[in-house]
Amino acid sequence: MNETIKLEIQNMTKLYKNGDGVKNINLKVRQGELMTLLGPSGCGKTTILRTIGGFLECNAGAILIDGKDIADLPPEKRPTAMVFQSYNLWPHMTVFDNLAFGLKLRKVPKAEIADRILDVLNLVKMPGTEKKYPNQMSGGQQQRIAIARSLLLKPEVLLLDEPFSALDAKIRMQMREELRKIQTDLDITVVFVTHDQEEAMALSDSTVVMNKGSIEQIGSPYEVYHHPASRYVADFIGEMNFIETQAGMHTAVRPENIRVEKGGGGDLEGQVRNIMMLGHYTEMVVQTRFGIVKAFVSGSEADLFKRGEHVALYFSDSRQFSE
């Protein structure tokens, strides 16, 4: 990946009257990188996105694109484009007119507008829809048009605010794959906001895990999953067992990092409480003296055990966290 820094946020603070917001945010996004801001509702991820886009004014700090501070520019003067969760298409306009609107404001020649719209509709797999109205299309199709509209403006940084959250699971997965392909083919820089950890893991080059207006960890999906920097990150990303083996200290181990064997011994032992087949893996719930522990095993392994059986648990990877 290109190591050139495309977007840099320096010591940015944006606080609302009630005291919520974000403080001292520092981020660097490289050219062609897809960075995800991940966290629960109210953690500040959309606040950061809207300050980048100019829809919110930050109280302090700098926002640089290609080394130039854009923090004082209005949204229309920034080299960014934003795609919202709600599509924001004009219902009374055709697809063509929705797409042409921003280009007309920029005084792009008519012939060029038509050519660029045809190209971008092919890019988002929506050719031949120029004369349709938004209410004649599904949610996934409308979101494709919203993304196409942003791409037409040729932004230096594309901002996406939970763009797929209103779509059903199958369409959401398809849209992720298509967005990732478009993003890598065009080598565009993207900042993507989501509360969905699976979406962040699937899409990101780098993931920013947020908590109450602050950044808990920045890293690749692999790093934040396998090497969480805090108990909060370990708990938020994926499934995790927290086993309090001594006061104030917890052993954290992922269910897929537990091997189950018959008999006693191991790192922990207990009785099989439940066995649930969950598609390509089976979840075994084991009652130990420290509480419930979940292990993910294959179907063939699960067939070797029955409820109530005494088992030993072996941890192939674990971490320690204090309260």
Overview of this protein structure:
The structure is a single chain. By secondary structure, this protein is an alpha+beta fold. The chain has 2 domains: 5-232, P-loop containing nucleotide triphosphate hydrolases (Rossmann fold, 3-Layer(aba) Sandwich), CATH 3.40.50.300; 240-322, OB fold (Dihydrolipoamide Acetyltransferase, E2P) (Beta Barrel). The protein contains 9 helices and 18 strands. Strands 6-7-8-3-9-10 form a 6-stranded mixed β-sheet, sandwiched between helices. Strands 13-17-14-15-16 form a 5-stranded antiparallel β-sheet. The chain has a 4-stranded antiparallel β-sheet with strand order 2-1-4-5, covered by helices on one side. Helix 2 (95-105) runs parallel beside helix 4. The longest helix has 18 residues, at 169-186. It is globular and about 75 Å long. The two termini are 38 Å apart. The model has no long low-confidence stretch (mean pLDDT 92). This is ABC transporter ATP-binding protein. Pfam families: ABC_tran (PF00005), TOBE_2 (PF08402). GO terms for molecular function: ATP binding. It comes from Sphaerochaeta associata.
| CA radius of gyration | 24 Å
Q: Name the average pLDDT.
A: 92
Q: From the 3D structure, determine the CATH topology of the largest domain.
A: Rossmann fold
- List the uncertain runs: none
Distance between the termini: 38 Å
Number of self-contained structural domains: 2
Strand content: 25-35%
The strands making up the biggest β-sheet line up spatially as 6-7-8-3-9-10
Assembly classification: single chain
GO molecular function, one term: ATP binding
Keywords: ATP-binding, Nucleotide-binding, Transport
Organism: Sphaerochaeta associata
Pfam families: ABC_tran (PF00005), TOBE_2 (PF08402)
